[in-house]
Amino acid sequence: MKPLTLHRVLWTCAALLAVLFAMILVALKVGAVPISITDLALNLGRVILGRRAEMQSDYRLIVFGLRLPRIVLGMMVGGALSVSGASFQALLRNPLADPYVLGVSSGGAVGAILALILLPQVALATPFAAFLGAIATIAAVYFLGRRRGQLDSTTLLLAGIISASFLSAVIIFLMTTTVGRDLRGMPFWLMGDLSAPLPESLHWILLAGLIVGIGAIYTTAADLNLITSGEREAMHLGVDVTRVKLVVYVSASLLTGLAVSVSGAIGYVGLLVPHVMRMLFGSDYRLLIPTSAIGGAIALLLADTLARTVALPTELPVGAVTAMVGAPLFIYLLRRRLR
Amino acid sequence: MSGGENGAAATMPGGEARMAEAPVRLNVEQASYAYHGHGQSAPDFTLAATSFVASQREVVTILGPNASGKSTLLKLIAGSLDPLSGRVELEGFEISRLDARTRAQKIAMVNQESALLFPARAGDYVLQGRHPYRRMLRFETEEDVQIAEEALAQVGATHLRDRWMHEISGGEKQRVILARALAQQPILLLLDEPTLHLDIGAQVELLERLRQLAAESRYTVIVVTHELSLAAEFADQVVLLNAGKCLRVGTPADVYRRDLLEQVFEAPLDVDIGPEGRPRVYVRGGRTGRGLRE
Predict the structure, then answer these.
(1) What mean pLDDT comes out for the span A88-98?
(2) pLDDT of residue B15
(3) A1 vs B124: CB contact, 8 Å cut-off?
(4) Would you say residue A235 has pLDDT above 70?
(5) What is the pLDDT of residue B4?
(6) Three-state DSSP class for B50?
(7) Strand B24-35 vs strand B107-110: parallel, antiparallel, or unpaired?
(8) Which chain A positions have a beta carbon within 8 Å of B111's beta carbon?
(9) Is A286 on the interface with B (CB under 8 A)?
(10) How far is residue A125's CA from residue A134's CA, in Å, rounded to a whole number?
(11) Hey, of A237, A284, A288, A337, which one would you mutate to test binding to chain B, going by the most B CBs within 10 A of its CB?
């Protein structure tokens, strides 16, 4: 018997952080204007030494004005969506659960758009409304996904997919009928995109929300392990199921809402990353939550780097890349379950 | 099946000495319950007031046909349902008032079927039984591992430790699930139809093991079953339920009356008393009686 130790959690996270760092360097280097590793190292050195002024201004603009903020945004969004997906998978006891597949992302997007239409001046209204939209959607999907008082995994997925489709129609309706407002584009909300620069004020809100959300979920990680084998079982093993569900549903909706409010509805990250992490490191949530957070950052950064570079000189929305990889994986997992 | 556990399960202490003067541990006093369907005023199912007491080292079977209220009574004892009236107490405390963690340190439940969402190894599964003792954000200690190993040994499943749960047989799985319950170090062990998916050999083995555990480790064991002959053979006390009513509580010899059992199980039956004073039930089919215990 080799139970999980803190030591193993820390070393695994350290290894993943090293991969993430390498991925950041790659993402900084490649793009429409390629930058050599030497230049990158030189300029990073200058930043670390506090000699920003010595940098060439075009480098400063491209690397620190354009690429780095987008990288930071992508990492935060990827981490949030992955942890959210892993959490929904445990609570709904459904390995195919993902904020996008369940319609939670679209619900968040509807909330965010409504806030942009109704309260355009209030900066924090958008993420907050996205959070409300997300939590309302997961509540609706949860109740629609029940049969005779029991969660039914097929019904649940159908309820989610139908909700997502309905909410996408609402998004299109809102975007089409509202004119003369800066609502970002329809592809942004439907597919997700990281190219829109984030207002400075939101960066910190996003980071704080992320830490609170992931932290809250992590405190229930051992309980989530037991909830995956059934709520009644978990209860008999001493889990306060009602409290855990409340904490995790609210936190996972918060993470989804925050991510959607700054990047639109990026799909399948929350499905793909926890599955890969489970294959690599096992399904213990005390390890899965942190590895999904870092893995999500790596995955979305990779996807966004591809989105920026595969179709040069133009760019794809990152959601198109994740959907192209994620949808086949979804089918594969579904088929494997049905067998 | 390893060689060790056969020897361990072979000797059993004799009947009455086990129950002598042990203090009451579980007290079910006029406990009732009613399920309501959606928007209906009349309940779908009621469990009428039921009473019995159980002491340490005692094996109690809750016996009855399907839909007799067995599982409802078990849920009342497990604290997952609040009784509509009456009390269910463990060592003087009302079970439904205990918080989940304290309850899980005292009461362990072995359910019929537990589908795993993600693959787990038997050893890790048993370690889950230590959850009620673990603080938030803490990992398993050496002591937890040792207790889990002991629990596996107690059910003769040490060799299954590193096997995947989905790759072992039904009987082996049942043993691992029992080991997880033992790792909770409870005083009350509840089992819901534990023999349902087991062949007769594994059924007898499991029930003998439960008797032995009750005797050696002072558990109070409550088993829900509809298996008449197994209950007769292994129970110290039988609680007979039918259609939501408790018909009789007592030793198997007290409860196993032919007219009563025939009425409850709706089958022609014969009952006689075996050499150890335990009743035996036969189905009266056609010309010759056929034993249920083959």
Answers:
(1) 88
(2) 43
(3) yes
(4) yes
(5) 39
(6) strand
(7) unpaired
(8) 232-233, 236
(9) yes
(10) 14
(11) A237
Distance CA A163, CA A157 (A): 10
Chain B CB within 8 Å of residue A228 CB: yes
Residues B137, A219: C-beta atoms closer than 8 Å: yes
Q: Which residues in chain B touch residue A278, judged by CB atoms under 8 angstroms apart?
A: 118
Chain B CB contacts of A283 under 8 Å are 118-120
Cβ atoms of B228 and B240 within 8 Å: the answer is: no
Residue of A nearest to B100 (CA): A238
Q: What is the domain range of residue A88?
A: 74-192+199-338
State how far residue B118 is from chain A, nearest Cα, in angstroms: 7
Flag if A283 and B120 touch (Cβ within 8 Å).
yes
> Which residue did the predictor score with more confidence, A19 or A38?
A19
Q: How far apart are CA B108 and CA A222, in angstroms?
A: 18
Residue A117: exposed, middle, or buried by beta-carbon count in 10 A (0-12, 13-18, 19+)?
A: middle
Per-residue pLDDT at A11: 94
Question: Alpha carbon of B100 to those of A223, A235, A238, B76: distances in Å?
Answer: 12, 6, 5, 14
- Do the beta carbons of residue A162 and residue A131 sit within 8 Å? no
CA distance A87 to chain B (A): 13
Q: Total domain count for chain A?
A: 1
The residue length of chain B stands at 294
A244 in any annotated domain: yes
Chain B residues with beta carbon closer than 8 angstroms to that of A4: 139-140
Place of tokens 């009620």: B132
Contact A238 B105 (CB under 8 A): yes
Query: In this structure, what DSSP letter does residue A197 have?
Result: P
Residues 89-118, chain B, touching A (beta carbon < 8 A): 99-105, 107-109, 111, 114-118
Helix (H, G, I), strand (E, B) or coil at A237: coil
pLDDT in tens, B62-120: 999 888 899 899 999 999 889 999 999 999 899 988 989 999 999 999 986 667 778 88
Burial class from Cβ neighbours inside 10 Å (0-12, 13-18, 19+) for residue A90 reads buried
Residue type, A98: D
d(CA A317, CA A77): 14
- The answer to which of A132-141, B3-12, B204-213 has the lowest mean pLDDT is B3-12
B52 forms bridges with which residues in the sheet?
Answer: B28
In chain B, residues with a C-beta closer than 8 Å to the C-beta of A284 are 124
The single residue listed with the structure tokens 């830490």 is A211
For residue B13, whether the previous peptide bond is cis, meaning omega lies within 30 degrees of 0, is no
**Max Cα separation, chain B?**
66
Amino acid code (one letter) for A319: G
A331 token code pair: 């089918």
Which residues in chain A are contacts of B100 at CB distance < 8 A? Answer: 235, 238-241
B258: number of Cβ within 10 Å: 15
Chain centroid to CA B152: how far?
Answer: 18
Residue B212, amino acid: Q
Strands B188-192 and B107-110: parallel
Q: What's the ipTM? A: 0.81
Q: Please tell me which residue of chain A has the smallest CA distance to B189.
A: A236
Residue A124 and residue A258: Cα distance in Å, rounded?
10
Asked, for residue A220, whether it belongs to a domain, the answer is yes
A233 touches chain B (CB under 8 A): yes
**Best to test chain A binding among B95, B105, B124 (most A CBs inside 10 Å):** B124
Which whole number is the average pLDDT over A139-155? 83
